[in-house]
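Translate structure to sequence.
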C-alpha cells in the first residue's frame, strides 16, 4: 500500500477534466495519485471538506522592490503576500536598485530569495541598449524568467524606446519577451495635461489609449521582423485587445484584476492617487473590451502588476505621486468574486491564472493538477464572504485599493510542493520557495 507524505481529502479538485471529488496523494513534493485514498497511509492529512482545490496560481508580473527600495516591499514580505493569497509562483520585475540587467544582479536576487521566499520565484532580466548583445545567453541563466522590455514608464537605461534598440533586443534571444507598451515620446509631449490639471483623474488622459496602441503596434511589427514571440503586459484599451486578437501567432496578452474591476473616472474620484498606475485605469468601454478578450480567449494570462508604494509616497500631489498599487495577495479573491458574480467561469480563471502562464512561459511541472506535477495548490472556499481589511494585507506598504470591499471566494489553505504553508489563513514556516524551472531552458 502506498505511503504518502500528504493526502488532501474531502474536497472537489480542479483537474484537467474539470471539478472532481477525489483525494490527492503527494510524495516528494509532487502529485502521486488522484483517486479515493481513504485506506492509504500518509504522514499527514489535510481535511478540505467543503472546499475546492485549484492549482497554485502563477503571478508573472510583480514588483517586490528588493534590492534598493525595501521600505516599500522586499522578497520576504512580497512572497508572504503571494502565498497568503494562494499564489505559489511569482515572476519579479527588474526595476530595482540596482537594476536587474546583468548576471551579477540576477544572481544577487536569487541569493536574496533563497531561504526567505515563501513562494517559488523567478526574475526578469531587464533589457537595455547596452546589454542587448548578451541577452541570448543571460536569458538562460538560473532563476531567469526571461527578458523584460520597458517601451515606456521607466527611467535610465531600462527604457528601450527607439526602433533600433528594440530590434537589437528582439534579435538576441529566443524565449518569449515581456513588454510594457506605452509610447514614451507621446507621453512626454502630453505630460503638461497632468501637470496643469493636478487631478489623478487626468492620468488616462495624459497616458492615453493612443500611446498604448502606438507602442503595441510598433512592437508587433518589430517582433514579426525579428521572428520573436512577445507577451504584452497589462493591456488596458479596446483597440489593443482587438489588435492582439489578430496577432496570436506572434503575441500573447495579459490582463490585470484592477483593469477588470475599476473604471475611470469613478476610481480616481474615490481612491485618488491610490488608483494611479501605468498604464492607467480607463473608462468603461475599455473595461468591457478587456472582459470581451477574457471571454473570447484573446487574453492569455492574469497578472497582478503588484507595485507597492507607501501611503506617504502616494499622498504626494499628482502627478508627483508614484504609479502602482498592491495586488498579488488580492489577485485570487478579487477574481473569485468575479466568478461569483458570473463575469467568468472557474475554468476560465484557472486557465488565466495557472495553465496560461505555464503554457506561454514554458514553466516545468506547474499550472495544473495532474500526476507528476508539483503539488502546488490554492484551496479555496467559493462561498466565503470576507471584507478586505488592512490588517490582512502582508505587503510592507500596508494598504490595498480593495480595502473595505466584501469579496466572495477566499483562499483558506495554500500548499507549495507538498508542504502546507498556509493553513486556515495562517502561515506555516519556514519559507521554502525555490527557483522556477523552465522547459525551454537547457
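Result:
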Amino acid at each position: 500500500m502506498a505511503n504518502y507524505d500528504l493526502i488532501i481529502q474531502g474536497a472537489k479538485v480542479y483537474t484537467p477534466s474539470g471539478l472532481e471529488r477525489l483525494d490527492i496523494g503527494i510524495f516528494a513534493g509532487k502529485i502521486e495519485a488522484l483517486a479515493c485514498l481513504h485506506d492509504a497511509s500518509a504522514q499527514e492529512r489535510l481535511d478540505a471538506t467543503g472546499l475546492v482545490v485549484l492549482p497554485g496560481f502563477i503571478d508573472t508580473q510583480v514588483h517586490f522592490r528588493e534590492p534598493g527600495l525595501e521600505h516599500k516591499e522586499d522578497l520576504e514580505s512580497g512572497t508572504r503576500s503571494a502565498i497568503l493569497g494562494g499564489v505559489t509562483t511569482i515572476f519579479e520585475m527588474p526595476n530595482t536598485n540596482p537594476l536587474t540587467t546583468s548576471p551579477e544582479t540576477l544572481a544577487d536576487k536569487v541569493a536574496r530569495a533563497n531561504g526567505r521566499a515563501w513562494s517559488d520565484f523567478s526574475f526578469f532580466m531587464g533589457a537595455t541598449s547596452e546589454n542587448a548583445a548578451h541577452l541570448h545567453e543571460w536569458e538562460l541563466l538560473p532563476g531567469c524568467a526571461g527578458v523584460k522590455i520597458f517601451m515606456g514608464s521607466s527611467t535610465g537605461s531600462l527604457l528601450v524606446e527607439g526602433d533600433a534598440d528594440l530590434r537589437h533586443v528582439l534579435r538576441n534571444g529566443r524565449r518569449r519577451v515581456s513588454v510594457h507598451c506605452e509610447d514614451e515620446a507621446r507621453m512626454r509631449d502630453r505630460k503638461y495635461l497632468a501637470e496643469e490639471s493636478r487631478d489623478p483623474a487626468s492620468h488616462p488622459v495624459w497616458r492615453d489609449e493612443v500611446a498604448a496602441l502606438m507602442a503595441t503596434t510598433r512592437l508587433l511589427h518589430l517582433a514579426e521582423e525579428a521572428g520573436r514571440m512577445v507577451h504584452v503586459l497589462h493591456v488596458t484599451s479596446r483597440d489593443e485587445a482587438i489588435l492582439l486578437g489578430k496577432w496570436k501567432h506572434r503575441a500573447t496578452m495579459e490582463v490585470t484584476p484592477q483593469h477588470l474591476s475599476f473604471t475611470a473616472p469613478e476610481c480616481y474620484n474615490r481612491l485618488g492617487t491610490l488608483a494611479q498606475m501605468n498604464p492607467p485605469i480607463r473608462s468603461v468601454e475599455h473595461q468591457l473590451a478587456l472582459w470581451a478578450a477574457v471571454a473570447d480567449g484573446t487574453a492569455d494570462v492574469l497578472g497582478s502588476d503588484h507595485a507597492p508604494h507607501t501611503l506617504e509616497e502616494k499622498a504626494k500631489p499628482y502627478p508627483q505621486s508614484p504609479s502602482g498599487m498592491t495586488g498579488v495577495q488580492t489577485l485570487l479573491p478579487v477574481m473569485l468574486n468575479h466568478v461569483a458574480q458570473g463575469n467568468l467561469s472557474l475554468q476560465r480563471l484557472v486557465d488565466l491564472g495557472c495553465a496560461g502562464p505555464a503554457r506561454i512561459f514554458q514553466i516545468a511541472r506547474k499550472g495544473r493538477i495532474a500526476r507528476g506535477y508539483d503539488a502546488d495548490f490554492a484551496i479555496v472556499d467559493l462561498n466565503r464572504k470576507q471584507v478586505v481589511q488592512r490588517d490582512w494585507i502582508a505587503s510592507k506598504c500596508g494598504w490595498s485599493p480593495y480595502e473595505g470591499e466584501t469579496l466572495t471566494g477566499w483562499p483558506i489553505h495554500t500548499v507549495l510542493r507538498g508542504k502546507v504553508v498556509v493553513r486556515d489563513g495562517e502561515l506555516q514556516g519556514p519559507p521554502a520557495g525555490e527557483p522556477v524551472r523552465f522547459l525551454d531552458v537547457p
